[in-house]
Please model this.
Amino acid sequence: MTDLALYITNKNYSSLSLRIWLLMCALDIPFEEVMVPMTGEAQIPGMTGISPTGKVPCLVDRDQGGLAIWESTAITEYLNELFPECGIWPAQMRDRARARALVSEMHGGFAALRGECPMNMRRPPVTLAVSDACRANVARAGAIFASSLDTSGGPFLLGRFSAVDAFYAPVLSRILTYNLLDSAAVHAFADALENLPAWQEWRSAALAETVIIATDEVE
Model:
């Protein structure tokens, strides 16, 4: 049994779970997936006593006496310390600095996009009317995709798969689900993810789920 346990919730809806799960799976970091179901009211009662916030994702390191690490950015840095050879961050200092800035921007921003467009992989891709603030979030995401791919040459945002791709994958999912932006960069990033076995595995599991979270089903 691996020392690391990653606590997540429903794959169709949980963008926070997706970030760390995708990062670990794509980079072959060994872990045990612990699925803690979400209720129809978007609560996760099973996380009580595991994470101090009661939220996911939460990484538990059994080798460190059951050390719990919550918050996606903190988990990412902890994994980088454990597995520096996996390429969570780029090799060059300049590139690492930009990568961390992009991840921090995503983790702390895009509030309108998150609030108006919940991740919902089962939803047919139908255009959603959104606010100006949401459109500004989408434009910023599109600019990040375009500039990153232009600089790196692809296929992923910084060339090879990294934490940046894991954190922006849920943003891309929202853009595609709600038909928010049609651009060459969006299609290129989408193609890269579609060819990633970890993304394929997550998406298949998400589509197979039957739980309905009413607050995340927007028309």
